[in-house]
TrEMBL record:
<comment type="pathway">
    <text>Nitrogen metabolism; urea cycle; L-ornithine and urea from L-arginine: step 1/1.</text>
</comment>
<dbReference type="GO" id="GO:0010121">
    <property type="term" value="P:L-arginine catabolic process to proline via ornithine"/>
</dbReference>
<keyword id="KW-0835">Urea cycle</keyword>
<dbReference type="InterPro" id="IPR020855">
    <property type="entry name" value="Ureohydrolase_Mn_BS"/>
</dbReference>
<keyword id="KW-0378">Hydrolase</keyword>
<dbReference type="InterPro" id="IPR014033">
    <property type="entry name" value="Arginase"/>
</dbReference>
<dbReference type="Pfam" id="PF00491">
    <property type="entry name" value="Arginase"/>
</dbReference>
<dbReference type="InterPro" id="IPR006035">
    <property type="entry name" value="Ureohydrolase"/>
</dbReference>
<keyword id="KW-0479">Metal-binding</keyword>
<protein>
    <recommendedName>
        <fullName>Arginase</fullName>
        <ecNumber>3.5.3.1</ecNumber>
    </recommendedName>
</protein>
<dbReference type="GO" id="GO:0005829">
    <property type="term" value="C:cytosol"/>
</dbReference>
<keyword id="KW-0464">Manganese</keyword>
<dbReference type="InterPro" id="IPR023696">
    <property type="entry name" value="Ureohydrolase_dom_sf"/>
</dbReference>
<dbReference type="GO" id="GO:0004053">
    <property type="term" value="F:arginase activity"/>
</dbReference>
<keyword id="KW-0056">Arginine metabolism</keyword>
<comment type="similarity">
    <text>Belongs to the arginase family.</text>
</comment>
<dbReference type="GO" id="GO:0000050">
    <property type="term" value="P:urea cycle"/>
</dbReference>
Amino acid sequence: MASETNHKFLSKPLTVGIVGAAFSGGQPRGGVEQGPARLVEFGLIDQLKGLGWNVDFDEKFPTYEDFKPQTENKHKILKNVGHVASVTKSVAESVQKVVEKGHLALTLGGDHSLAMGTVGGSAAVHKDVGVIWVDAHADINTPLTTDTGNLHGCPVSFLMGLEGTKEVTELDWLKPCLAANRIVYIGLRDVDAPEKKILKDNKIKAFSMHDVDKHGIGKIVEMALEYLGRDKPIHLSFDVDALDPSVAPATGTPVRGGLTFREGHYICEALYETGNLVAVDIMEVNPMLGEQSYVLQTIQIGCSLARTAMGESLL
Ligand SMILES: NC(=[NH2+])NCCC[C@H](N)C(=O)O
Ligand SMILES: [Mn+2]
Ligand SMILES: [Mn+2]
Protein backbone atom coordinates (compact mmCIF):
# COMPACT_ATOMS: atom_id res chain seq x y z
CA MET A 1 0.00 0.00 0.00
CA ALA A 2 1.13 3.54 -0.69
CA SER A 3 2.02 5.48 2.44
CA GLU A 4 -0.56 7.92 3.80
CA THR A 5 -0.51 11.38 2.27
CA ASN A 6 -3.01 14.16 1.92
CA HIS A 7 -3.37 14.50 -1.86
CA LYS A 8 -4.40 18.09 -2.50
CA PHE A 9 -5.04 17.95 -6.23
CA LEU A 10 -6.10 14.34 -6.86
CA SER A 11 -9.57 12.88 -6.50
CA LYS A 12 -10.45 9.64 -4.72
CA PRO A 13 -10.16 6.80 -5.44
CA LEU A 14 -6.56 7.51 -6.36
CA THR A 15 -6.11 6.87 -10.07
CA VAL A 16 -3.07 7.13 -12.28
CA GLY A 17 -3.47 7.70 -16.02
CA ILE A 18 -0.49 6.26 -17.83
CA VAL A 19 0.57 7.91 -21.07
CA GLY A 20 2.85 5.60 -23.06
CA ALA A 21 4.92 7.96 -25.15
CA ALA A 22 6.87 5.72 -27.51
CA PHE A 23 8.82 8.42 -29.28
CA SER A 24 12.46 9.06 -30.12
CA GLY A 25 12.24 11.89 -32.69
CA GLY A 26 13.64 14.56 -30.39
CA GLN A 27 17.11 13.01 -30.58
CA PRO A 28 19.10 10.75 -32.93
CA ARG A 29 19.46 7.44 -31.03
CA GLY A 30 16.91 4.76 -31.79
CA GLY A 31 15.54 2.66 -28.95
CA VAL A 32 14.23 5.23 -26.52
CA GLU A 33 10.79 4.74 -28.11
CA GLN A 34 10.85 1.25 -26.58
CA GLY A 35 11.08 2.68 -23.07
CA PRO A 36 7.37 2.60 -22.24
CA ALA A 37 6.79 -0.96 -23.48
CA ARG A 38 9.76 -2.27 -21.51
CA LEU A 39 8.70 -0.50 -18.30
CA VAL A 40 5.24 -2.03 -18.65
CA GLU A 41 6.66 -5.46 -19.52
CA PHE A 42 8.74 -5.28 -16.37
CA GLY A 43 5.53 -5.13 -14.35
CA LEU A 44 5.01 -1.45 -13.66
CA ILE A 45 1.22 -1.63 -13.94
CA ASP A 46 0.84 -4.36 -11.31
CA GLN A 47 3.39 -2.65 -9.11
CA LEU A 48 1.32 0.53 -9.08
CA LYS A 49 -1.87 -1.45 -8.46
CA GLY A 50 -0.05 -3.08 -5.57
CA LEU A 51 0.43 0.36 -4.06
CA GLY A 52 -3.34 0.77 -4.09
CA TRP A 53 -3.74 2.92 -7.20
CA ASN A 54 -6.37 2.42 -9.84
CA VAL A 55 -4.49 2.26 -13.11
CA ASP A 56 -5.90 3.67 -16.31
CA PHE A 57 -3.74 2.36 -19.15
CA ASP A 58 -4.38 1.34 -22.73
CA GLU A 59 -1.90 -1.39 -23.73
CA LYS A 60 -2.28 -0.29 -27.34
CA PHE A 61 -0.61 3.08 -26.98
CA PRO A 62 0.35 4.79 -30.24
CA THR A 63 3.73 4.35 -31.93
CA TYR A 64 3.37 7.78 -33.50
CA GLU A 65 4.62 6.52 -36.90
CA ASP A 66 1.51 7.95 -38.53
CA PHE A 67 2.21 11.29 -36.86
CA LYS A 68 5.09 11.85 -39.28
CA PRO A 69 4.40 14.90 -41.45
CA GLN A 70 4.10 14.59 -45.24
CA THR A 71 6.19 17.70 -45.76
CA GLU A 72 9.94 17.87 -45.35
CA ASN A 73 11.64 19.50 -42.39
CA LYS A 74 12.19 23.10 -43.45
CA HIS A 75 14.47 24.11 -40.59
CA LYS A 76 18.21 24.61 -41.01
CA ILE A 77 19.30 23.34 -37.61
CA LEU A 78 16.28 22.00 -35.75
CA LYS A 79 15.62 18.38 -36.61
CA ASN A 80 12.33 16.60 -37.08
CA VAL A 81 10.21 19.56 -36.07
CA GLY A 82 6.96 18.45 -37.66
CA HIS A 83 7.03 15.03 -36.05
CA VAL A 84 7.96 16.37 -32.61
CA ALA A 85 5.21 18.98 -32.93
CA SER A 86 2.40 16.56 -33.76
CA VAL A 87 3.46 13.98 -31.17
CA THR A 88 3.87 16.49 -28.33
CA LYS A 89 0.49 18.02 -29.20
CA SER A 90 -1.14 14.62 -28.85
CA VAL A 91 0.72 13.92 -25.58
CA ALA A 92 -0.41 17.30 -24.22
CA GLU A 93 -4.03 16.39 -24.98
CA SER A 94 -3.66 13.03 -23.26
CA VAL A 95 -1.98 14.48 -20.17
CA GLN A 96 -4.50 17.30 -19.94
CA LYS A 97 -7.40 14.80 -20.03
CA VAL A 98 -5.84 12.78 -17.20
CA VAL A 99 -5.08 15.80 -15.01
CA GLU A 100 -8.52 17.32 -15.60
CA LYS A 101 -10.09 14.22 -14.08
CA GLY A 102 -8.05 14.68 -10.92
CA HIS A 103 -5.90 11.70 -11.84
CA LEU A 104 -2.11 11.60 -11.66
CA ALA A 105 -0.57 11.71 -15.15
CA LEU A 106 2.38 9.32 -15.43
CA THR A 107 4.12 9.68 -18.78
CA LEU A 108 6.62 7.03 -19.83
CA GLY A 109 9.12 8.23 -22.41
CA GLY A 110 10.48 8.41 -24.87
CA ASP A 111 12.86 11.32 -25.23
CA HIS A 112 12.60 14.53 -23.26
CA SER A 113 11.19 16.65 -26.11
CA LEU A 114 7.94 15.00 -24.97
CA ALA A 115 7.93 17.33 -21.96
CA MET A 116 6.58 20.06 -24.23
CA GLY A 117 3.49 17.88 -24.24
CA THR A 118 3.49 16.72 -20.64
CA VAL A 119 4.08 20.12 -19.05
CA GLY A 120 1.89 21.74 -21.72
CA GLY A 121 -0.89 19.37 -20.63
CA SER A 122 -0.56 19.82 -16.88
CA ALA A 123 -0.12 23.60 -17.14
CA ALA A 124 -3.33 23.78 -19.19
CA VAL A 125 -5.20 22.54 -16.11
CA HIS A 126 -3.08 24.03 -13.30
CA LYS A 127 -1.87 27.49 -14.37
CA ASP A 128 0.31 27.73 -11.28
CA VAL A 129 1.97 24.32 -11.64
CA GLY A 130 5.58 24.21 -10.47
CA VAL A 131 7.96 22.01 -12.45
CA ILE A 132 10.79 20.10 -10.82
CA TRP A 133 13.14 19.13 -13.65
CA VAL A 134 15.59 16.44 -12.61
CA ASP A 135 18.26 16.14 -15.28
CA ALA A 136 21.98 16.29 -16.08
CA HIS A 137 20.96 18.81 -18.76
CA ALA A 138 18.94 22.01 -18.69
CA ASP A 139 17.14 21.23 -21.98
CA ILE A 140 16.62 24.98 -22.43
CA ASN A 141 18.39 25.55 -25.74
CA THR A 142 16.44 27.73 -28.16
CA PRO A 143 16.31 27.42 -31.95
CA LEU A 144 18.99 30.15 -31.90
CA THR A 145 21.36 28.47 -29.44
CA THR A 146 21.12 24.71 -30.05
CA ASP A 147 24.30 23.11 -31.33
CA THR A 148 22.81 19.73 -32.03
CA GLY A 149 19.37 20.68 -33.35
CA ASN A 150 17.92 17.91 -31.19
CA LEU A 151 14.63 19.05 -29.72
CA HIS A 152 15.08 17.00 -26.55
CA GLY A 153 17.62 19.69 -25.67
CA CYS A 154 15.02 22.46 -26.12
CA PRO A 155 11.63 21.69 -24.49
CA VAL A 156 11.95 24.22 -21.66
CA SER A 157 12.60 27.15 -23.99
CA PHE A 158 9.43 26.30 -25.93
CA LEU A 159 7.38 25.96 -22.74
CA MET A 160 8.61 29.45 -21.76
CA GLY A 161 8.31 30.98 -25.22
CA LEU A 162 11.93 32.17 -25.27
CA GLU A 163 13.55 34.01 -28.17
CA GLY A 164 13.32 32.18 -31.48
CA THR A 165 10.63 29.73 -30.42
CA LYS A 166 7.68 31.65 -31.87
CA GLU A 167 9.17 31.39 -35.36
CA VAL A 168 8.81 27.61 -35.22
CA THR A 169 5.24 27.61 -36.50
CA GLU A 170 4.80 23.83 -36.32
CA LEU A 171 4.84 24.20 -32.55
CA ASP A 172 2.25 26.97 -32.62
CA TRP A 173 -0.15 24.76 -30.67
CA LEU A 174 2.09 25.21 -27.62
CA LYS A 175 1.47 28.62 -26.09
CA PRO A 176 4.02 29.79 -23.53
CA CYS A 177 2.72 28.24 -20.32
CA LEU A 178 5.69 28.16 -17.95
CA ALA A 179 7.07 31.29 -16.28
CA ALA A 180 10.79 31.36 -15.57
CA ASN A 181 10.05 31.32 -11.83
CA ARG A 182 7.87 28.18 -11.98
CA ILE A 183 10.68 25.68 -12.61
CA VAL A 184 13.49 24.33 -10.45
CA TYR A 185 16.29 22.15 -11.80
CA ILE A 186 18.06 19.46 -9.80
CA GLY A 187 21.13 17.51 -10.91
CA LEU A 188 22.57 19.74 -13.64
CA ARG A 189 26.15 19.10 -14.75
CA ASP A 190 26.24 19.33 -18.55
CA VAL A 191 24.84 22.72 -19.46
CA ASP A 192 25.81 24.39 -22.77
CA ALA A 193 27.33 27.89 -22.57
CA PRO A 194 24.30 29.67 -24.09
CA GLU A 195 22.04 27.72 -21.73
CA LYS A 196 24.03 29.01 -18.76
CA LYS A 197 23.38 32.53 -20.01
CA ILE A 198 19.65 31.83 -20.40
CA LEU A 199 19.47 30.45 -16.84
CA LYS A 200 21.25 33.55 -15.49
CA ASP A 201 19.39 36.14 -17.56
CA ASN A 202 16.03 34.67 -16.58
CA LYS A 203 17.08 34.08 -12.94
CA ILE A 204 16.00 30.45 -13.17
CA LYS A 205 16.40 28.40 -10.00
CA ALA A 206 18.90 25.64 -10.73
CA PHE A 207 20.66 23.23 -8.39
CA SER A 208 23.70 21.62 -9.99
CA MET A 209 25.46 18.51 -8.72
CA HIS A 210 27.80 20.89 -6.93
CA ASP A 211 24.84 22.21 -4.97
CA VAL A 212 23.64 18.66 -4.22
CA ASP A 213 27.09 17.81 -2.87
CA LYS A 214 27.24 20.99 -0.84
CA HIS A 215 23.79 20.93 0.80
CA GLY A 216 22.70 17.31 0.57
CA ILE A 217 19.63 16.17 -1.34
CA GLY A 218 17.27 16.67 1.63
CA LYS A 219 18.03 20.37 1.83
CA ILE A 220 17.92 20.78 -1.96
CA VAL A 221 14.37 19.39 -2.18
CA GLU A 222 13.35 21.60 0.78
CA MET A 223 14.68 24.67 -1.01
CA ALA A 224 12.97 23.68 -4.25
CA LEU A 225 9.60 23.27 -2.52
CA GLU A 226 10.00 26.49 -0.55
CA TYR A 227 10.72 28.31 -3.83
CA LEU A 228 7.76 26.88 -5.77
CA GLY A 229 5.32 27.16 -2.86
CA ARG A 230 4.17 24.39 -0.54
CA ASP A 231 0.53 24.63 -1.60
CA LYS A 232 1.15 24.51 -5.35
CA PRO A 233 0.66 21.60 -7.75
CA ILE A 234 3.91 19.94 -8.83
CA HIS A 235 4.94 18.33 -12.09
CA LEU A 236 8.04 16.14 -11.76
CA SER A 237 9.93 15.67 -15.02
CA PHE A 238 12.61 13.06 -14.38
CA ASP A 239 15.24 12.41 -17.03
CA VAL A 240 17.00 9.21 -15.95
CA ASP A 241 20.33 10.67 -17.10
CA ALA A 242 20.17 12.80 -13.93
CA LEU A 243 21.30 9.63 -12.21
CA ASP A 244 24.93 8.63 -12.43
CA PRO A 245 25.64 6.38 -15.44
CA SER A 246 26.76 3.67 -12.99
CA VAL A 247 23.18 3.70 -11.70
CA ALA A 248 21.18 4.24 -14.90
CA PRO A 249 23.45 3.43 -17.83
CA ALA A 250 20.92 2.79 -20.61
CA THR A 251 20.25 6.34 -21.71
CA GLY A 252 21.22 8.39 -24.75
CA THR A 253 23.29 11.19 -23.24
CA PRO A 254 24.93 9.89 -20.04
CA VAL A 255 27.12 12.27 -18.03
CA ARG A 256 29.30 11.11 -15.17
CA GLY A 257 29.04 12.63 -11.70
CA GLY A 258 25.31 12.21 -11.30
CA LEU A 259 22.78 11.51 -8.57
CA THR A 260 23.12 8.31 -6.57
CA PHE A 261 20.38 5.70 -6.52
CA ARG A 262 19.16 7.02 -3.17
CA GLU A 263 19.34 10.70 -4.11
CA GLY A 264 17.16 10.06 -7.16
CA HIS A 265 14.63 8.07 -5.18
CA TYR A 266 14.70 10.53 -2.30
CA ILE A 267 13.49 13.27 -4.66
CA CYS A 268 10.54 11.09 -5.72
CA GLU A 269 9.69 10.09 -2.13
CA ALA A 270 9.86 13.66 -0.85
CA LEU A 271 7.67 14.96 -3.67
CA TYR A 272 5.10 12.22 -3.05
CA GLU A 273 5.02 13.23 0.61
CA THR A 274 3.99 16.79 -0.29
CA GLY A 275 0.71 15.43 -1.66
CA ASN A 276 1.04 18.01 -4.43
CA LEU A 277 2.10 15.91 -7.42
CA VAL A 278 -0.20 16.12 -10.42
CA ALA A 279 2.14 14.71 -13.07
CA VAL A 280 5.30 12.61 -13.29
CA ASP A 281 7.46 11.96 -16.37
CA ILE A 282 10.00 9.13 -16.53
CA MET A 283 12.12 10.01 -19.56
CA GLU A 284 15.06 8.86 -21.69
CA VAL A 285 15.15 5.16 -20.73
CA ASN A 286 16.74 3.60 -23.84
CA PRO A 287 16.62 -0.22 -23.72
CA MET A 288 18.74 -0.48 -26.89
CA LEU A 289 21.82 1.04 -25.32
CA GLY A 290 24.28 -1.25 -23.57
CA GLU A 291 24.38 -4.85 -22.44
CA GLN A 292 21.23 -6.60 -21.29
CA SER A 293 22.11 -6.43 -17.60
CA TYR A 294 22.63 -2.67 -17.80
CA VAL A 295 19.41 -2.25 -19.68
CA LEU A 296 17.53 -4.25 -17.07
CA GLN A 297 19.07 -2.18 -14.29
CA THR A 298 17.88 1.03 -15.97
CA ILE A 299 14.37 -0.30 -16.58
CA GLN A 300 14.14 -1.40 -12.95
CA ILE A 301 15.09 2.09 -11.88
CA GLY A 302 12.52 3.67 -14.17
CA CYS A 303 9.91 1.53 -12.40
CA SER A 304 11.20 2.22 -8.89
CA LEU A 305 11.34 5.97 -9.50
CA ALA A 306 7.69 5.86 -10.57
CA ARG A 307 6.73 3.71 -7.56
CA THR A 308 8.46 5.94 -5.04
CA ALA A 309 6.84 9.03 -6.58
CA MET A 310 3.56 7.21 -6.00
CA GLY A 311 4.00 6.33 -2.38
CA GLU A 312 6.19 3.26 -2.10
CA SER A 313 8.04 3.74 1.16
CA LEU A 314 10.94 1.96 2.80
CA LEU A 315 9.08 1.16 6.02
N1 LIG B 1 17.03 15.34 -22.74
C1 LIG B 1 18.34 15.24 -22.92
N2 LIG B 1 18.95 14.12 -22.64
N3 LIG B 1 18.96 16.31 -23.43
C2 LIG B 1 20.37 16.38 -23.76
C3 LIG B 1 20.71 17.71 -24.39
C4 LIG B 1 22.12 17.81 -24.79
C5 LIG B 1 22.53 19.14 -25.41
N4 LIG B 1 22.48 20.20 -24.46
C6 LIG B 1 21.67 19.48 -26.63
O1 LIG B 1 21.09 20.51 -26.71
O2 LIG B 1 21.54 18.70 -27.52
MN1 LIG C 1 19.35 14.79 -19.76
MN1 LIG D 1 16.40 15.87 -20.35
